[in-house]
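Dear Dr. H.,

I hope your travels went smoothly. While you were away I took the liberty of generating a structure for the chain from your last submission, since the lab meeting agenda had it listed for discussion. I wanted you to have the full record in hand beforehand rather than looking at slides cold. The sequence, exactly as received, is reproduced here:
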Amino acid sequence: MSVREELEKREHLQLSTQAAFSDGTKGRPCPEEPDENDMRTNYQRDIDRIVHCKAFRRLMHKTQVFLQPEGDHYRTRMTHTLEVARISRTIARALKLNEDLTEAVAMGHDLGHTPFGHAGEGALSECMGRPFYHNEQSLRVVDVLENNGAGLNLTYEVRMGILGHTGDRIPETKEGQIVRKADRITYVNHDIDDAIRAGILTEEDLPRSVTQIIGKTYSQRIDTLVCDMIASSRETGEIIMSDNVEKALLDLRSFMFEKVYRNPVAKGEESKARDMLKRLYEYYYRHPETLPADFLPQMSFDGMERTVCDYIAGMTDKYAVDKYSELFVPMGWHVRG
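The corresponding predicted structure, in token form, is as follows:
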């Protein structure tokens, strides 16, 4: 028996019957014959494909909430992704679900995020004349854009977990549902932490009706939310929180929209970011020959609009600023003596 087969057998012995077993996947877009020398299960292989792809590396230079903050300790899309993965695995382990599947979904869920966070989504929605959703773009990244247009060929369960981490579609697997809730637990609380660091909030500003239920400090809130989700899910067999704790989380999220996500101090530069991305889109749409050589083959996929959208969505914050400066800001010059 190979190592991979031993790991698959161990899943059946140790995990809940509600778990998504790696040897029971619905498959990949392009079927792959098992590699006898590969010691990884299907979901472990998917984690590695995501972590080693270019889109994952770019997450370290993409905005979470604060645009280009001055400080080393603010979250980026990369650190957000890692926090979601850790919380998701903790919950999955306690519920005897497949930790590898939850990690794969968590690692891939934000690969399609634009530069400058949701400001970038808004800019591309205006350019395309239809809504741009980062969860759909994340699926497009792993299905189409990565690996020189071949995609990562991930399993169905990972792909649908990525697509369903937000929006109307709920993942079929319990593991995907965990990531969906862990994402919200994570971003609401670490965004509070960053807002306090930025001087926009203090712990005393948080609604008392919320802190009395889930805690006043960052660690208290995470602990309460995760433990409540585990206890409620074990009791019911569904991935849920208790009513009063989930309401507290939703109230906290509403508070964050009012005080931070729409705060002119935190988001004052967003209009500049939106205008910058819109100008980049217009330029590359008119001058497709200036797209990078390794990106040109993608023009045949879905037309010029989609190609330019894919290119800009994949940019990091710094790369977008650099390209804008290169194209639209006059360069300094000097006269030779």
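Two observations you may find useful: The chain has one domain: 42-318. The two ends are 77 Å apart (CA to CA).

With kind regards,
E. W.
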